[in-house]
Amino acid sequence: MQHLAAVAHGPSPVIDIVFAVGGMVALWCGLSWAFDVRGITTRRAERIHRRNQETWAMGRLGGSPNLFASVGYLRFLGAVMAGAGLLLLVAVYALWHLG
Question: What percent of the chain has pLDDT over 70?
Answer without folding.
Answer: 78
